[in-house]
Design brief:
This protein has one domain: Rossmann fold. The chain has a seven-stranded parallel beta sheet with strand order 3-2-1-4-5-6-10, sandwiched between helices. The protein has a two-stranded parallel ribbon with strand order 7-9. Strands 8-11 form a two-stranded antiparallel sheet. Helices cover 34% and strands 17% of the residues. The chain starts with 6 loop residues before the first strand and ends with a helix. Strand 5, helix 4 and strand 6 form a beta-alpha-beta unit. It has nine helices and eleven strands. By secondary structure, the chain is α/β, with parallel strands linked by helices.
Length: 276
């Protein structure tokens, strides 16, 4: 595979996932091109392209001659629902339109979320389940996924659960959210380490997930009580019945059938290997 055929455009390179994924893609031999605004710092060995996801015209040069587009950029931790929808849906639509016009042969990989599943699901969320997002962020992702599936491009959607590791401090912020939400301490949540996101994305780049929506997670959904305790916070104990037991728990059997195997199989393995 020559260098030109491995040129990929990546959005969200400075985000939680992008900042840790892009260096791994570079190490894997990809020539990474990053959409940036306002001279933001980007990872080393990455080519910056000044463009704005909300300005479709500016994206033409960004997508030119790329073999793949990895769309990681998203807004989620805000009460500004208009910003969420503009960034996550309209921004994705603009990037899709630019790809259709200027890079129709590119593989388009969209990072999404397992929060799209129904809170009352009777089993772990499966890709074949109807989407029923409870908040603006997953709702905007559902709309973006639909736009991509109907685009005519060569697409794949990777749905990630709670992402952690590589010093991102994401796990450390978990207690404040679960305690504020008054979630049951026995609720189990699917997780994925940054190292295994790279594994999944490399598989998607190779075409393994073309035309599919795929849940990506490790092998052991862990209780909120345990996750909080790992970062030094003890949730209030409870023996009350657990309602909605499958909320935040995703079924990753499709990914396994496609050959995905997480190297960081559990959060406890990440702790043991000092990979938090």
């Amino acid at each position: 595979m020559n260098k030109e055929s491995k040129t990929i455009l990546v959005t969200g390179v400075t985000g939680l996932v992008g900042a840790r994924l892009v260096p791994r893609l570079v190490d894997a031999g990809f020539d990474c091109r990053a959409v940036v605004r306002g001279g933001k710092d980007i990872p080393a060995r990455v080519t910056a392209v000044e463009a704005d996801l909300l300005d479709e015209v500016s994206l033409a040069a960004a997508v030119k001659d790329v073999s793949a587009i990895l769309h990681l950029a998203a807004v989620f931790r805000t009460q500004d629902t208009d910003l969420i929808w503009k960034s996550n849906f309209e921004g994705t639509r603009n990037l899709i339109n630019a790809a259709k016009a200027h890079a129709p042969g590119a593989r388009f990989i969209l990072a999404s979320t397992t929060h799209v599943y129904n809170k009352n699901n009777p089993h772990p969320g499966r890709e074949s389940d109807p989407e029923d997002p409870q908040h603006a962020y997953p709702a905007s992702k559902v709309a973006a996924e639909k736009e991509l599936r109907e685009s005519g491009l060569n697409w794949s959607v990777l749905r990630f659960p709670f992402v952690y590791g590589d010093g991102d401090k994401h796990l450390e912020t978990l207690p404040e959210h679960v305690i504020a939400a008054k979630w049951h301490p026995a609720m189990r949540m699917s997780t994925i380490h940054h190292r295994d996101i790279a594994t999944a994305v490399n598989m998607a780049m190779a075409g393994t997930m073309d035309g599919r929506t795929v849940n990506i997670s490790d092998e052991a959904p862990t209780s909120l009580y345990e996750l909080c305790k790992l970062v030094g916070v003890t949730m209030e104990s409870s023996s009350e019945p657990l309602t909605d037991p499958w909320y935040l728990h995703s079924d990753s059997s499709l990914a396994r059938s496609l050959g995905f195997q997480p190297a960081i199989r559990t959060v406890y393995k990440a702790v043991q290997e000092k990979l938090l």
